[in-house]
Amino acid sequence: MTSLKPMESAILLLIRCIISIYTFITWPIYFILQKPWKIRANRSRLRAVSLTHGDDFILYRSVTEISDVHARFLQDKIDTMEKVFRFAVRQHGQKCALGTREILAEEDEMQPNGRMFKKFLLGDFQWRTFTQTDSEAESFGRGLRELGLRSRENVVVFAETRAEWLISANGCMKQNMPIVTLYATLGDDAIIHGINETEVSCVITSQELLPKFKNILPCTPNVTLLIVMEDPLKPLDLNGYGDTVSVLPYQEVIRLGDLSSKSGCLPKPEDTAIIMYTSGSTGSPKGVIMSHQNVVNAMLGYTNVTTFYENDVYMAYLPLAHVLELISESIWMLFGIPIGYSTPLTMTDKSSKIKRGSQGDASVLRPTIIASVPLVLDRIHKSIQEKIEGGPAITKALFNLAMEYKNDWTDRGYETPIINTTLFKPIRALLGGRLRFVLSGGAPLAPETHKSLKTTLCCPVLQGYGLTETCAATTVMDPDDNSLGKTGGPLTCCDVKLVSWEEGNYRIKDWPNPRGEIHIGGTNVAVGYYKQPEKTKEEFYEENGRHWFRTGDIGEFTQEGFLQIIDRKKDLVKLQYGEYVSLGKVETQLKINPLVENICIYADPTKLFPVALLVPNFDHLKSLAEKNGIELSTIEELCSHPEMTKLVLGELQKHAVKCRLQKFEIPQALTLIPDIWTPDSGLVTAAFKLKRKTVQDRYKASIDRMYS
Ligand SMILES: *[C@@H]1O[C@H](CO)[C@@H](O)[C@H](O)[C@H]1NC(C)=O
Ligand SMILES: *[C@@H]1O[C@H](CO)[C@@H](O)[C@H](O)[C@H]1NC(C)=O
Ligand SMILES: *[C@@H]1O[C@H](CO)[C@@H](O)[C@H](O)[C@H]1NC(C)=O
Ligand SMILES: *[C@@H]1O[C@H](CO)[C@@H](O)[C@H](O)[C@H]1NC(C)=O
Ligand SMILES: CC(=O)N[C@H]1CO[C@H](CO)[C@@H](O)[C@@H]1O
């Protein structure tokens, strides 16, 4: 840690004085212009009320009225995704709908370390209008019919996020064919399981993923048709997939459909729209059945959260097999907001596939809205932090001063336009400079990441809560909501119930706020699990004419009606003296530390403290080693060095204290693990959630050693 020189301290003091004087003079102007009392009133506005309660449950409902478009859909009976899509096309016909960047070339680029990397040379976004998207989807659906598929026959979509994904899905919906979605990162076994269970004969995939089917097809005898979304640069190799399987380019299906005279076969609201395989953290993946009605209602639930503008643009890069992305893209289509497709490898100017000196997707598209998951947001937060830490001490001090100043004034209801447009402008520019809000879902976002991104990106980061089983909809923050670590109020499509959980010590009578297991009931709650009646009965139930889902998450409702996720039923371990350690909560906090690439906390109920399995960030581990005069070069050597383990544990414990973890929550022993945990290794799910049991089994020896 470098400290400030006397001269720098003097400069900093001077700057502080100037700011104080400036604030003193301009404060009345800001007070009159910005009306902070109104902003503060909006923050604490009531979002939900408790309708009824019993001895062990309390039920909350949103106080927001349904939106105009929601009312209109009810009146006009727009109750299937097919009708929603048709409505959008009628409304926005010639507007840009889906944009894909043209790939001009792939080139080798010499890296500073002498290695060669493949980089893309990308052109502008090429747009399909709503009308074009619609007629392409229509053709695709008819093409499937020409190829012998019937309505109500399941079709698997197994591909990365791209325009053709959404178009094929819409094409299937026009023929009432349920689409089965599987994550592109799933392991072969899970893919075989999904294809087998849904008995499909047709799989839509991409040229990049196609070779995977050489191993998969022998185990899925019913598959006879592979439709491949082409790679614009490489020729498609159709060999090696056996005689019984035809491999057809996507464009060929469109051509067949163009010539076809088959009519559509329209779905009804109760027909299955999607069977979405979630990568469960235990056992094989489960297919969640979503009807058209479910998806439409989930979408409509989101329509009264904020207003959209004519110039809004959305950047898509999360997997479309993730319900959050699928629902959000459907919403943007409904409102006529153009969707530009990106990938994590080409998003910013610095992304790994972008040729040096050329522009990343965000700089070209300049999106106003993005959706994200904590995994990605934590990474952005860490990289900003690293930049600042790595710079001169004076920059760091100035940056921290600005953060503190801005947070202070935003808390009081003021805006800081000058800091927004000077100091934080370069950070905003990384994502195109026009961002209006960021949606975050999929897992709890650490309050520290939340705060830092909100401040540096200069726009609200709206955290939401929802599950595949509720079609991504349950609660979401609105732009007026300034809280951290909470997930906003309930959407209009569902009720949220808290149910006391005695063993976990969470009760609805708790003070100051009721706490308990979250149950969700409404028209957005999925029908159940595909071909798993027992599992469905365990987790879904009917009550007072509503369909309910038990989430297993523990929540707390604040006075304003904000839901906060505080725990997870399964993750709770009771230590020897009776304290409860929430493994997930501890991991979320520790993951913010730059040394941590991934971490799994384990707590033995017969012991007094938890221990940690930690996959370190190599660069940070190495610089920690250098600082302490340890000279080892490979990650394996570093990880097995006892001194390193001690150093990292020390850093982690310091961090834990800073995050205000309780003493019994802080790991007292640690093992450094040199292998990155990927879905292929089976240690994390395709959505990068820990598979605790597998991790524990794999590292059993290390765990035993840490406790001995
Ligand atoms: C407060 O909230 C209302 C309703 O959402 C909105 O119309 C109004 O513009 C907000 N006021 C401020 C100052 O943000
Ligand atoms: C496919 O499903 C059948 C039952 O539907 C089952 O008997 C078989 O073992 C499954 N095969 C694989 C490879 O999962
Ligand atoms: C294959 O198709 C047949 C006939 O449609 C069906 O009975 C069988 O269950 C299917 N098997 C698998 C593994 O999908
Ligand atoms: C400044 O940033 C905050 C979020 O950090 C945002 O709410 C506010 O609208 C921004 N103000 C201006 C004038 O850009
Ligand atoms: C943010 C938003 O769109 N709010 C609307 C919710 O619905 C009511 C009733 O239709 C409108 O008055 C709000 O403006």
TrEMBL record:
Membrane-spanning ranges: 12-33
Signal peptide (UniProt feature, chain positions)? none
A GO molecular function for this record?
palmitoyl-CoA ligase activity
* Presence of keyword Cytoplasm: no
Database matches in Gene3D superfamilies? N-terminal domain of ligase-like
PROSITE patterns (alphabetical): AMP_BINDING
Which UniProt key words apply to this protein? Answer: ATP-binding, Fatty acid metabolism, Ligase, Lipid metabolism, Membrane, Nucleotide-binding, Transmembrane, Transmembrane helix
**Residue ranges of the AMP-dependent synthetase/ligase domain?**
119-530
**According to its UniProt record, which reaction does this protein catalyse?**
a long-chain fatty acid + ATP + CoA = a long-chain fatty acyl-CoA + AMP + diphosphate
Which is a GO BP term held by this UniProt record?
Answer: neuron differentiation
Q: Does the keyword Nucleotidyltransferase apply?
A: no
Q: Which InterPro entries match?
A: AMP-binding_CS, AMP-dep_synth/lig_dom, ANL_N_sf
Q: What is this protein called?
A: long-chain-fatty-acid--CoA ligase
State the organism's lineage.
Eukaryota, Metazoa, Ecdysozoa, Arthropoda, Crustacea
